[in-house]
Amino acid sequence: MGTVSVQPQLDIDRLTAELAALAGISEAEPPVVTRVVFTEADLRARAYVRGLCADAGLTLQVDAIGNMFARWEGTEPELASIGTGSHIDAIPNAGSYDGTVGVLGGLEAIRALQRAGFRPRRSIELVIFTAEEPTRFGIGCLGSRMMGHVLTPKAALALRDKQDHGLEELRAAAGFAGALESVAVERGRFNQFVELHIEQGPLLEQEGIDLGLVTHIAAPASLRIQIEGEGGHAGGKLMPGRKDALAAAAELILALEAAAKSTGAIDTVGTVGVCEVFPGAVNSIPSRVRLETDIRDIDGARRDRVLASLHEACGEVAARRGVTMTTELVNADPPTTCDEAILTAMAASAADAGRSSKRMVARAYHDSSFVACIAPVAMLFIPCRGGVSHRPDEYASPEWIAAGVDVLARTLARLAS
Ligand code: GLV
Ligand code: MN
Ligand code: MN
Description:
Layout: H1 12-23, E1 33-35, H2 40-55, E2 59-62, E3 68-72, E4 81-87, E5 90-94, H3 100-115, E6 124-129, H4 142-147, H5 153-157, H6 167-173, E7 190-198, H7 203-207, E8 211-217, E9 219-228, E10 232-233, H8 245-262, E11 269-278, E12 284-285, E13 288-297, H9 300-321, E14 324-332, E15 336-337, H10 340-352, E16 357-362, H11 368-371, E17 377-382, H12 398-416
Parallel strand pairs: 4-6, 4-7, 7-17, 8-16
Antiparallel strand pairs: 1-5, 2-3, 3-6, 8-15, 8-17, 9-13, 9-14, 10-12, 11-13
Helix pairs in contact: 1-3, 3-12, 8-9, 10-12
């Protein structure tokens, strides 16, 4: 890492306009952003970002799952590169800044360095990861998970969406081809990787701090639970002896909430975000329910204890209510520890830029967690209003974004020198 005193030349108006244009590429009416992987909106968004990268003189490579790599060649191109980037897919009913700030902000950081006349020694690569969000295939960070050797091609090929379309069919229709084995990236390709992202929590805004230097990324796990009970007429079938699958599911939802609270740790969270009820008629006893649960902690062992409590509750509720429960562990990833050298570079860059910063943890999961399997990583957070994210009213002000991009650019310059 070199000591550099580059002054990045930001064009925040251009970046703000690009973020707005990208938000306009959506399956829903503005301001709602819905951009699910491999849909027409996702493909249009990719084309838009590709065009911007080409305008900046970056060379583009796309891998077999659709991860995009836009490269600014360094003066010593044989050296391992410095990576930055994030995702442009968005969950249903999302906002404009999750992921996109790391992609378009990463691009603006590169352009700001170009405008300042900086030449990197190591190449700088902007990575746009495929499907950070689990919306389509039920598993988050698809592209980075495969890059980081965590999801095998065989397991990837088994993924199907809710319409029962397989990954192979969907990626081919989206125009991505080639052996999935080639998606895994060898250690040594990236010397270091740094991801700019909105905090998705309230702390930076509340404390009036410009930037979060992320030291740990929480360990996410997801358990799918299928409950089979017995349906019937809501009027005719009396209460004794019912095997109501939704009533059983209700107990599990509360059991997970209690287990997550019982650790006493602020970092433990448990959520049931999906509850599908069959047949879903007001006058019919639910015979089948599918729950998707999400459990996270920065302490992997503590997270696993909550997962174990949920499993126990499944057994107990199933036995008592005479329903059957089938569970499927979708993922149980370890927590990520960020790289001290990158944290030091970010802190020095924040100081150079006259910006306040604090060390903090990331409670959402991020592509960086999986890039961490092949390279040292860290993340740079900017505030978002009210800590709101995954909602259309998600907002980060141009000033907050400018601070993040400025410090990202200075950090990239340091790491690439
Ligand atoms: C990613 O968006 C997450 O759910 O943390
Ligand atoms: Mn998200
Ligand atoms: Mn994100």
